[in-house]
Amino acid sequence: MKNLIVRAISGALFVVIMVGGFMSPRTMVALFALITGLTVWEFTGLVNQRKGVTVNRFISTVAGVYFFLAVAAIRMGITSNFIIIVPYLLTIVYLFISELYLKQEDPVNDWAYTMLSQLYIALPFSMINVLGFELSEDGVSCHYNMLLPLCVFIFLWLNDTGAYCSGSLFGKHKLFPRISPGKSWEGSIGGGILVMIVAAFIGYYTNENGQISQLSVLGWVGLGLIVVVFGTWGDLVESLFKRTLGIKDSGKIMPGHGGMLDRFDSSLMAIPASVVYLYTLQLLS
């Protein structure tokens, strides 16, 4: 009972912080820069526990945060010059060249896990800037719209809630027993239906009330489906990662909810998939 209360309080605080973070462009960038840094730091700490792996946690974390901020600066219109990415590229080059002199047991693994920290965490999180900041036709000015990035997380939370409830009531067929025995097809379908209903309502409301929305009702339903499918895959990817390392939780930063990867695993696939979906709609329109 005590653990349930702690989990509920921690979860409620998390939602408040996340929603509050989307209220202004500066708070969103600051919040997700922090999230990126904490998640990369956690990831590199976990892989460094593997035999023969020694990833530079500090430089990898700094590189991930810098990349996030560089993408934010470009999307916010602070700069359109690609030169802002150069320090990040130099950092990555350094991380490769440094292995020549460190005489580590398995430099290939070090390189692989270092780059994975950037591709698996820093790159997906940086795409939240693409969802939140819409560039004008001149490619310089922009405006901030919290609706899309916030809704991606709302869809993820609703999917988790719907999947848990419908899975508890009707779950009989395992979705992916080799990696996540607790997930069922019934739960996933129930979560998906709930998300698409809410997405349709958001699409109807935004289009009927003159809100800033680049999506039709059907477009919003499609976005909800994308978030559900890729969010589920993101959860499974992190489950496979933890099984490979032989751990239950990625960390203890959130009481009752585990670590940063445990909390943001679904978003690491859902955010970039949402960006691809939106750009695909633009190309087809």
Write up this protein.
By secondary structure, the chain is mainly alpha-helical. The protein folds into two domains: 1-144, no CATH class; 146-284, no CATH class. The protein contains twelve helices and four strands; from the N terminus they run αααααααββαββαααα. The protein has a two-stranded antiparallel ribbon with strand order 1-2. Strands 3-4 form a two-stranded antiparallel ribbon. α2 (25-47) packs antiparallel against α6 (107-126) and α6 packs across α12. This is Phosphatidate cytidylyltransferase. It catalyses: a 1,2-diacyl-sn-glycero-3-phosphate + CTP + H(+) = a CDP-1,2-diacyl-sn-glycerol + diphosphate. It is found in: Cell membrane. Belongs to the CDS family.
Topology, element by element:
Blueprint: H1 2-21, H2 25-47, H3 57-76, H4 86-97, H5 99-102, H6 107-126, H7 128-132, E1 133-135, E2 142-144, H8 147-170, E3 174-176, E4 180-184, H9 185-208, H10 217-245, H11 260-264, H12 267-284
Antiparallel strand pairs: 1-2, 3-4
Features:
single chain, 285 residues, mainly alpha, two-stranded antiparallel sheet
Short description:
This is Phosphatidate cytidylyltransferase. The chain is mainly α and 285 residues long.
Termini gap: 52 Å
- Number of distinct beta strands: 4
The gyration radius over C-alpha positions equals 20 Å
The total tally of domains equals 2
Low-confidence stretches: none
- Principal-axis shape equals globular
Instruction: Output the number of helix runs.
Output: 12
Main β-sheet: number of strands, strand sense, barrel status?
Answer: 2 strands, antiparallel
Give me the side-by-side strand order of the main sheet.
Answer: 1-2
Structural class of the helix and strand makeup? mainly alpha
What's the average pLDDT?
90
Strand content: under 5%
* Order of SSEs: HHHHHHHEEHEEHHHH
- What proportion of the residues is helical, as a percent range? over 70%
